[in-house]
Amino acid sequence: VPPNPSRPPVTLPVRLAAVAVPAVVGLQLLLCLLILKNYRFETYAFRLAFLLAAGGWVIHHFLPRAARLPFFVLLSLATMVYLLGIDAGRPSIPVGLLRAGAIVGIGGVLIGICHLPVGFWARAGLLAAAGALIAVGRHRLLGGPEWGVLWPVLAAMFMFRVMIYLYDVSSAKQKPTLAQTLAYFFMVPNVCCLLFPVVDFKTFCRTHEDRPNWSTYQNGLRRITRGLVQLALYRLVASVLFIPPADVRDGSDLAQFVLANSLLYLKVSGLFHVVAGLLLLFGFNLPETNRRYFLASSFTDYWRRVNIYWKDFMLKVFYYPAYFRLKKWGPTGALAGATCFSFFVTWLLHAYQTWWLKGEASFSWPDLLFWSILAGLVLVNVLWEDRLGRQRKLGPGGYTPLEAVVLVVKTALTFACVSVLWSLWSSGSVVEWLRMWRLADGSTAAWGAAAMAVVMIATLLLEVLPGSFGGKPRGPAGPSWRPPARSAAGCTITLLAVLVLAEPAVQGLVPATLQPYLEVMARGSASEGQRGGNDRGYYEQLDSVRVQDRALQEVWLRAAIPPGSDVMVRVNDYRHLVFPPNLRLANYHGADFSTNRWGMRDRDYEQAKPAGTVRIAVLGSSHVMGWGVADRDVFDIRLEERLNAAADRLASGVKFEVLNFASQGWSPLAQLEVVERQVKAFSPDVVVYVGHSNDSVWLIGNLHAGLRKGLPLPRAYLAETLVAAGVTGRTNEVIARGRLRPFESGLLARTYQALADACRAAGALPVGVFLPLPRESARPAEIAGFTRALADAGFVLLDLSDVYQGKDREEYAGPDPGGHSNAKAHALIADVLYDRLTGDPRIDLAGLARKAVERKPPVDAPATRE
Length: 866
Fold this sequence. Notes:
Blueprint: H1 12-39, H2 44-62, H3 65-84, E1 86-87, E2 90-91, H4 93-114, H5 120-138, H6 150-158, H7 161-171, H8 178-185, H9 201-206, H10 213-241, H11 251-263, H12 266-281, H13 299-306, H14 308-325, H15 331-358, H16 365-388, H17 401-425, H18 430-437, H19 442-469, H20 482-501, H21 504-507, H22 515-523, H23 526-529, H24 538-542, H25 550-557, E3 569-570, E4 577-578, E5 584-588, E6 591-594, E7 613-619, H26 622-625, H27 635-645, H28 647-650, E8 655-660, H29 668-677, E9 686-691, H30 695-709, H31 716-725, H32 733-740, H33 744-761, E10 765-770, H34 780-792, E11 796-799, H35 823-839, H36 845-854
Parallel strand pairs: 7-8, 7-9, 9-10, 10-11
Antiparallel strand pairs: 1-2, 3-4, 5-6
Helix pairs in contact: 1-2, 1-10, 1-20, 2-3, 3-4, 3-8, 4-6, 6-15, 10-11, 10-12, 10-20, 10-22, 11-17, 11-19, 14-15, 15-16, 16-17, 17-19, 22-32, 27-35, 29-33, 30-32, 30-33
């Protein structure tokens, strides 16, 4: 067959590349998926969207070029249908089709308005009117609560990008294709990522498939790798470095607060890198979203680096139109006016974004001052650069020593000023912010100088040295595949390192002082999980989970979040959170839930023990409280019924009451508070404490939370242990856990002993129960250690580790991720406990019953008035 001159010959390197490129990219994507799974970054829906995008990339890569953009559109729409298809925590394709169809339909109307054959301002007015109508629905005046899922997702796709789209299609010489438009608005990760970069439409279309695939793919993977690293570092900042404004007590705390708030932006930066990197995998060769913003050397430089897409959006849609309209003021006046106008719009649009994503908008003085001061600083820089000219390093000459010193100093000072501004933006009020600054002292300056020194070193390594040596000729250019290959090697090594550091076996090889930091990067911590409270900044507030977000969170978590999850109230003791009295919930973790007048999940009992009654108080955590089962099915209710049904066999006329004092997440230290504050008043004869495998973890967490609150320590041994471990109320939670780890078993044993002593002081026999969850398979050594600790503390031990022996454990596990006991398991536990309590001579329930009857007054005795 004669060769075809219109086609280049298929050489061996081309054939190798056809195999090597998908293999190398696929390996890196697999590592990214494993990191997302093991580190549990973001929501389940985000991780699932990444998985679907990675699988879609495999098909996309082998498609003809003409079919790739339509395929991306189909993948994006199918992902939206699948991810939105959640009804009561369960996947539902019809629900997904309905929700996705509504978003596409409303979005189609907005897109259609942009193409109407009328003037620009007429279309802008129609868009504003349509937005106002949608805002009515967002405010829940139209439609039912189920529409709450749609508005934030629709807003994330259209609230800013429709402005860019209208601007671009109005000035474009050629109309965009339908595939380009749909791909732009319904990008695959957007449905589960409300904080989405403001992608420019013209750039989105122009950069599609504008470079060889290998280069674009690897550029995207480099950004994804950078984003994953930044998300891990964010966890470290949020869990270890961040300190709430109320906890700022001295100059060192002030420096920590200022530094942490500026570093919290790592979350947004990392997320943007991951999202943009995914888009590059599908051929959209978009520019960087953020670029070394901590190393900005001026305020205009910071504005150019920190959120590049937002800066480009403001320049295109607001700054340049304002500048050209204000040119009659002269160049300097137009520059100043357009800059001030752009920052004013930025301030308004941030409030606008908060309202669309969270359903509420607030204007505060810290917010206004932050944008006003930043606008003033940028304006000064802009006018200075306009007068002297902006200096750039584009030539091969590099930096002179004087220029390097000036750059390093300017970068450090810019970082310090921006960090102080972020601390203002993150404060609840100006008064609170000024109160903190009254605490500034020498330690504030020392820590600030140390942070600036780190920035200076980073500037030398990342800015000065590459600028000095990067311009020198390196000989003839090598093959085009070498830069992507070097990038692939670097990304693969980095991803492997991040993945390996999450393994407990590897963490055990590093020094003990570093282990808590690796652990919190891999798994987060309780403090990081509480992000988004009123003590955090703008982006943390957008990322928070509130009552109005429940429907959307159910979609993202792919699990039902019951109403009333936030009903517990805070108390100023080591219980920390308690249920309020007389609570009635129709669906709490999948079942009806109620509390009596004492705040217990139980029947309503008189506090004074009736004559002729044997009382058994039950202590424990969520398992004992009855997570996921109805009130009538909790094992203490069933146990009480069985005891009363057989009461006459133990003693004629006796009555049994089994009181459930358990609550979710309570540690043994909390149980100690419960005995002394609640149980003692009910005069129990027996206290049954059901231990949990997490007792030691919860104990340290509750202890540290109490220290942070300044609560007095209930026992002297706690103070002795804290002194020996070097832990105070000022010690960070992660560091405190690491320091207390060697004391963990001793703390647990002595707390068990204090708990048993408190039960005896209340006149009750302490009974300790080891009861595993259905899916728990503790090793014999762990069971032996746990039961020995209870027995040594003075509890009468009842070992129920064999309660599911010979049974299918899945039949007894609830649907929740924790695998709590279901109603069938609670019935089994009640039966086993009945047999153990009535048959154990150490408890002697029959003897307690006889004594209760003996103390009971005769039926014909006159009633006494209390």
